[in-house]
From TrEMBL:
The chain crosses the membrane at residues 45-73, 132-155. InterPro entries: DUF2062 (IPR018639). It holds the Pfam family DUF2062. This is DUF2062 domain-containing protein. Residues 23-164 form the DUF2062 domain. Keywords: Membrane, Transmembrane, Transmembrane helix.
């Protein structure tokens, strides 16, 4: 696992503490647990961040932050994963989640007009909410399980590789 690369991507502690939405958690953000960077904490951060990224509600970072405090996961990396659904990607991701939910529930998907606005959304809300949440739950569960597994396996593989390289170097120097 390229630990240095991941650390470069993560927001610093002062950046997280300055974020307005994270002020609710500022009392717990000073604990060292949420800043640890090891295989378990990083894998848990991927699990939490990816799951929260697919929650179709506002304040995904706060939800991820609370989960990181209770589960003892790396908070900054979890926030990075939450930002998979950002202003550029949120519409296509949640539309795909909605379509998946509608398919699973065997519901005819609501046609959307090219002019989606707040009034349209309020009128269609009762038809959209159930498939959206089901699809988001399924995609979030799959993405978080996949992210957890991939990071855990890559980290283990990297650790074993480093251990073997160290063993080879020590064998060469002892000859």
């Amino acid at each position: 696992m390229p630990k240095k690369t991941l650390k470069k991507l993560m927001p610093r502690q002062d950046q997280v503490l300055e974020n307005k939405s994270m002020r609710l958690l500022s009392r717990w953000l000073h604990k060292a647990d949420v800043w640890h960077f090891n295989r378990r904490y990083v894998s848990r951060a991927a699990l939490i961040g990816l799951f929260c990224a697919f929650i179709p509600l506002p304040m995904q970072m706060v939800i991820a932050g609370i989960a990181c405090i209770f589960v003892r996961a790396n908070l900054p990396l979890s926030i990075v994963f939450v930002w998979i659904t950002n202003p550029l990607t949120i519409a296509p991701i949640f539309y795909a989640c909605y379509r998946l939910g509608a398919f699973i529930l065997d519901i005819q998907a609501v046609d959307y007009s090219s002019q989606i606005n707040w009034e349209w959304f309020q009128a269609q809300f009762h038809q959209i909410v159930e498939p959206l949440f089901l699809g988001s739950f399924i995609v979030g569960t799959f993405a978080s399980a996949l992210g957890y597994t991939v990071i855990d396996l890559l980290w283990r593989r990297h650790t074993v590789k480093r251990w073997h390289n160290r063993k080879k170097r020590s064998a060469k120097t002892s000859k």
